[in-house]
Design brief:
This protein is mostly helical. The chain contains five helices and no strands. The protein starts with a helix and ends in a 16-residue tail after the last helix.
């Protein structure tokens, strides 16, 4: 019941944000797609997921228990901490810490979580910096990298 209610609210929010995002215009043409494509794609995916949760059979049997609610709240706290430490610690360190914390939160073992967290931070930074040419903050690692 709560999942369907949340999904319906989220679907309405996605629809409203899509209306807002439709009006995104760039002051100059820097790319042929424009600034509205990415938000509309994300909102479309979130809306489709919400719609699936609304019409999915068998949702009434699921109950929200205390451990699940606590894990969900801790997940939100970890993601908030990730957003707040992104500039200060840099992309690699903050991504590694968030990945490690989320891995442990979802019952991962510490060593595989640590290995995957470091790989995730380094490989995603390499992908964004080298292949996609997206500048990301280095934070603590700025002293180790030559400019």
């Amino acid at each position: 019941m709560y999942v369907r209610l949340f999904s319906a609210i989220w679907l309405l929010l996605c629809a409203w944000l899509a209306v807002v995002a439709w009006g995104f215009q760039a002051p100059f043409a820097y790319d042929p797609v424009g600034p509205r494509a990415y938000p509309l794609q994300l909102l479309g995916l979130m809306g489709a997921g919400s719609l699936w949760l609304i019409i999915k059979p068998g949702m009434l049997e699921q109950r929200l228990d205390v451990p699940m609610a606590l894990r969900s709240a801790l997940c939100v706290v970890v993601l908030l901490a990730y957003a707040l430490t992104f500039e200060l610690l840099g992309f690699v360190v903050s991504t590694a810490l968030a990945t490690f914390a989320l891995g442990l939160l979802f019952t991962g073992r510490p060593l595989p979580c640590a290995i995957s967290a470091v790989l995730m931070g380094v490989l995603l930074y390499s992908l964004f910096d080298l292949l996609l040419d997206v500048p990301l903050p280095l934070g603590l690692l700025d002293a180790f990298v030559e400019s």
